[in-house]
């Protein structure tokens, strides 16, 4: 099933405000999402919060697509509006090494969520107030949710130094 | 240097946990203290990290269902429901009405069981030992129903993609009705122990305030949001599994403190009993599982589906690339996100209150760390 285009007053307003910086408005199984240019993400989320009532950032996450040329990662922001009772996702496609701006300036909850994305994918959020690993040990090397990281792979040096064993397997 | 006295000593850093009885698992909190007053907190989590999201990418869709039970293990049925609904949405394969009704009954019983664990341990943290024994007694009855239904008590794996694995057993309705009849007076009993209790009120009132605006800033959902006066529940906002058919209220309170969260959760248990009564009186006949293909292979796409778990919004963001294994499963855990607000609530509180504040968030570390 293909994603279908989505058009209403919200898309018109966003289109007028952002022009070419928003790329697509789509729905899949009746769930709306906006594909935006990476540099527009924070401005778009801020606009949606203050002008369209999407005042609750549900989640921030990422998906790794290693085979996709030029833009290996999707970063996804899920937003909800209490006023409209509606959800919308903002999706940006970024290359490995690109540092998207943090959205902690708009939503405080992004702090831990972006830390987790950094921890799992190695995406560094520019001007994040406290970008440390959150679930994995601080001196672990490697980013587990990348597709090239095998499920049995581990940081052998860390395991040896901290657990005193040759291998965790 | 020589003039520095004890009284103007610098702030003290105190480590709480990970092995601390009132952090409900392996949560480590680093407290910055000025005497008894908390200046700041830093949560260290990840001790229970098992890489659930990575495991999902290496299992087929049905094979992953038992794993989700291990996240929030006191409300495993909710976890399973959320995952099954997400995959069903991805495949456009709704569960039949009979399965939906049984799902609602079991999920609401699980909500009661989860709130009972919270109530017992929270009261224990505050210093009231008695409620724990009562709450465990009632929880046992709920767990017996799960055990009779699917053989497991805690990590149940009760649901399958597309519906249910098992038909209900003989005497299911009667046992559930008996549980409901017993539960209502028991909730009154807990309330006589706690609601008007002078010590309970002194320890909880005005502690850990998080206003509605702050809740939205921190993404806090569930009973904490409702105790701040926001009448919002995903069972009403985006009804799933036939919740639109049942009559129930969303309890709210205004003061947004620990005491109000206690009241909200008590009322939620009463509402759950109300839903279970309606559901069990009217379980439709018919198949218990939809026509699920032998190999679950959704077409490429992505969905986000969330449910009202006992602790807040539990969401699953599932991406399919057209194979029989999920390309990506992201869990939006309510405990993890609610725990972030600890920093805000604890600031300026006294060290004795931190226990009440951790308890009131109702975290399960299995879900925080995944």
List keywords for this structure.
A: alpha+beta, Beta Polymerase, domain 2, six-stranded mixed sheet, 4 helices, 25% helix, B: 370 residues, alpha+beta, Cytochrome-c3 Hydrogenase, chain B, three-stranded antiparallel sheet
Content of β-strand of chain A: 15-25%
In CATH, the architecture of the largest domain in chain A is 2-Layer Sandwich
Report the CATH architecture of chain B: Orthogonal Bundle
CATH H-level superfamily title of the largest domain in chain A: NADH:ubiquinone oxidoreductase Nqo5 subunit
Into which percent range does the helicity of residues of chain B fall?
40-55%
Task: Please sum up the structure shown.
The complex is a heterodimer of chains A (169) and B (370). Helices cover 25% and strands 25% of the residues of chain A. Chain A is of the alpha+beta class.
Summarize the structure in words.
The complex is a heterodimer of chains A (169) and B (370). Chain A folds into two domains: 4-135, NADH:ubiquinone oxidoreductase Nqo5 subunit (Beta Polymerase, domain 2), CATH 3.30.460.80; 137-169, no CATH class. Helices cover 25% and strands 25% of the residues of chain A. Chain A is built from four helices and six strands. Chain A has a six-stranded mixed β-sheet. In chain A, a hairpin with an 8-residue loop joins strand 4 (56-64) and strand 5. With 370 residues, chain B is of the alpha+beta class. Chain B has helices spanning 52-57, 61-68, 76-91, 97-126, 130-150, 172-194, 198-204, 212-218, 223-226, 234-237, 258-281, 334-339, 342-346, 353-361, 365-369, and strands at residues 12-16, 28-34, 37-44, 159-160, 163-164, 301-309, 312-320, 328-332.
């Amino acid at each position: 099933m293909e994603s279908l285009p989505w058009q209403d007053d919200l898309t018109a307003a966003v289109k007028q405000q952002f022009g070419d910086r928003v790329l697509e408005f789509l729905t899949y199984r009746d769930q709306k999402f906006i594909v935006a240019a990476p540099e527009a993400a924070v401005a778009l989320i801020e606009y949606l919060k203050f002008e369209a009532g999407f005042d609750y950032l549900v989640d921030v996450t990422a998906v790794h697509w290693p085979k996709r040329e030029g833009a290996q990662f999707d970063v996804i922001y899920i937003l909800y509006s209490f006023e409209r009772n509606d959800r919308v996702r903002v999706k940006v496609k970024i290359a490995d090494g690109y540092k998207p701006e943090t959205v902690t300036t708009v939503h405080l909850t992004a702090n831990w969520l972006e830390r987790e994305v950094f921890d799992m994918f190695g995406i560094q959020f520019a001007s994040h107030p406290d970008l440390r690993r959150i679930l994995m040990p601080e001196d672990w090397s490697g980013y587990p949710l990348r597709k090239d990281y095998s499920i049995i792979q581990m940081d052998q040096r860390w395991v040896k130094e901290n657990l005193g064993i040759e291998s965790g397997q | 240097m020589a003039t520095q006295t004890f009284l103007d000593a610098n702030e003290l850093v105190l480590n709480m946990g990970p092995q601390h009885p009132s952090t409900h698992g392996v949560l480590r909190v680093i407290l910055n203290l000025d005497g008894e007053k908390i200046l700041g907190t830093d949560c260290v989590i990840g001790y229970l990290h098992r890489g659930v999201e990575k495991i999902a990418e290496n299992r087929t869709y049905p094979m992953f269902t038992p794993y989700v039970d291990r996240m929030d293990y006191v409300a495993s049925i909710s976890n399973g429901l959320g995952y099954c609904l997400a995959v069903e949405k991805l495949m456009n394969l709704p569960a039949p009405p009979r399965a939906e009704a049984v799902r609602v009954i079991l999920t609401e019983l699980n909500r009661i069981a989860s709130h009972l664990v919270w109530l017992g341990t929270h009261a224990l943290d505050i210093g009231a030992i008695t409620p724990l024994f009562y709450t465990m007694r009632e929880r046992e009855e709920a767990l017996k129903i799960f055990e009779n239904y699917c053989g497991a008590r805690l990590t149940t794996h009760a649901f399958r993609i597309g519906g249910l694995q098992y038909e209900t057993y003989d005497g299911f309705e009667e046992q559930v009705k008996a549980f409901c009849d017993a539960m209502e007076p028991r909730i009154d009993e807990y309330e006589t122990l706690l609601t008007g209790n002078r010590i309970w009120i002194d320890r909880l009132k005005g502690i850990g305030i998080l206003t509605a605006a702050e809740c939205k800033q921190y993404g806090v959902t569930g009973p904490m949001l409702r105790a701040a006066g926001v009448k919002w529940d995903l069972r009403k906002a985006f009804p799933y599994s036939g919740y639109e058919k049942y009559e129930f209220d969303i309890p709210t309170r205004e003061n947004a403190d620990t005491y109000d969260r206690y009241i909200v959760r008590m009322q939620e248990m009463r509402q759950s009993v109300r839903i279970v009564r309606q559901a069990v009186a009217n379980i439709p006949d018919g198949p218990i599982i939809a026509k699920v293909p032998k190999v679950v292979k959704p077409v490429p796409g992505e969905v986000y589906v969330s449910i009202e778990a006992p602790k807040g919004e539990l969401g699953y963001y599932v991406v399919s690339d057209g194979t029989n294994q999920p390309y990506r499963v992201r869990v939006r855990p309510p405990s993890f996100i609610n725990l972030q607000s600890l920093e805000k609530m604890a600031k300026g509180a006294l060290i004795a209150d931190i226990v009440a504040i951790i308890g009131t968030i109702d975290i399960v570390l299995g879900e925080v760390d995944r």
